[in-house]
Amino acid sequence: MRISLQEAAARLQNGEVVAIPTETVYGLAADATNDIALQKIFTTKQRPADHPLIVHIADISQVNEWAAEFPEVAVKLARAFWPGALTLILPAKNHVSRVVRGGEPTIALRVPNHPVALELLRLSKLSVAAPSANLFTQLSPTTAAHVEAGLGASIPVLDGGACQVGIESTIVSVATDGEWQLLRPGMISEADIAKVVGKPQRKTVSEYAMNKANAKTLTPKAPGQHALHYSPRTPLLLFKDRAALLETSEQLINTGKTCAALLMGDGNKPRCHTAQLSNQPAEVAEKLYGALHQLDALKVDRLLVELPPDSPSWAAVLDRLSRAGFNKEI
Ligand code: TXA
Ligand code: MG
């Protein structure tokens, strides 16, 4: 159900959940100071309650309402990238709801770079907690239609068009001593962060978390570590090269199975439905979830996905694809 900006603001003030556009993905928003409203996010998403949420604020001046400290390194990052696709994890003030923090001593903050989201924050005079507006472990939505397809037609959605970044924000935690760690790669790269901070990240557990072979052994606090995070419903096979993808498609077709393929750039195509993305990381990120939603809707037996090169500019796209195809790489 599509609603207006005014209605979205009124519903949020009334303690209801509303799906909202951001430049990364659509979020399922609720008043970040209202525990009953926050609980509705978890029940709607069927998400475990110990998963912390990102609080979306209107501008940098609101950080001090949530964070007990705002280390100089974090100030630099906020000035460089907000509004934008960067989430900062900072020590939380004591009064911040345990529901929004998922029991953590820290709080995740982001100023979204979307005119409709920013207008909603100003109009409602609220800060809103918003995880991606999808069922837990399913694909994130990048259009209002994706939200409705995933959460049902009755979910109130503020339609702000298709998301321009297309994958979730980069998450960086900054400790009191100014050391930083990348917790989730995004289109703001590790190199972009290191350049602004002036030093590399502290070697971390999060590098361990990035290695999907270790993913299932971690506690549920590190982002995206769940084996089936960001997954389409159709089983996904990942391929490092086109030749292997073509070979598997032939084997599937010859044994009476149906498949569809997501391809990066030009080249030979398999004899099945395909979606072709470009060879530019930002363009692929923007279209990635849309293409996966579209291929998933075909309800074929297997989705075949060509992986981009394993280089830093593709880190975020590779992260999302390897999580979607957990344990199924060929
Ligand atoms: O782009 C985005 O970040 C989108 C849009 C809606 O802003 N939001 C999003 O939220 O991706 P979600 O809940 O799907 O992912 C947020 C991640 C979770 O994996 C959560 O574990 C992590 O952020 N997170 C939140 N607070 C944290 C904290 N205090 N410490 C560590 N991780 C935290
Ligand atoms: Mg999510």
Into which percentage range does the β-strand content fall?
15-25%
Distance between the termini: 40 Å
What is the helix tally?
Answer: 12
Order of helices and strands: HEEHEHHEHEHEHEEHHEHEEHEH
For the largest beta sheet, what order do the strands appear in spatially? 1-2-6-3-5-4-7-8
Low-confidence stretches: 211-225
What's the gyration radius in Å?
A: 20 Å
Q: What is the count of β-strands? A: 12
Helix content: 25-40%
**The CATH C-level class name of the largest domain:** Alpha Beta
What does this structure look like?
This protein has twelve helices and twelve strands. The protein has two domains: 2-217, DHBP synthase, CATH 3.90.870; 236-324, Rossmann fold (3-Layer(aba) Sandwich), CATH 3.40.50. By secondary structure, the protein is of the alpha/beta class. The longest helix has 16 residues, at 281-296. It is 33% helix and 16% strand. Helix 1 packs across helix 6. Bound molecules: threonylcarbamoyladenylate and magnesium ion (MG). Residues 131-132, 140 line the site of magnesium ion (MG).
Give the topology, please:
Layout: H1 5-13, E1 18-20, E2 27-31, H2 35-45, E3 54-56, H3 63-66, H4 72-81, E4 86-91, H5 98-101, E5 106-110, H6 115-124, E6 128-129, H7 144-151, E7 170-174, E8 180-184, H8 190-197, H9 205-210, E9 236-239, H10 242-254, E10 259-264, E11 273-277, H11 281-296, E12 302-306, H12 315-324
Parallel strand pairs: 3-5, 4-7, 9-12, 10-11, 10-12
Antiparallel strand pairs: 1-2, 2-6, 3-6, 4-5, 7-8
Helix pairs in contact: 1-6
Residues 131-132, 140 line the site of magnesium ion.
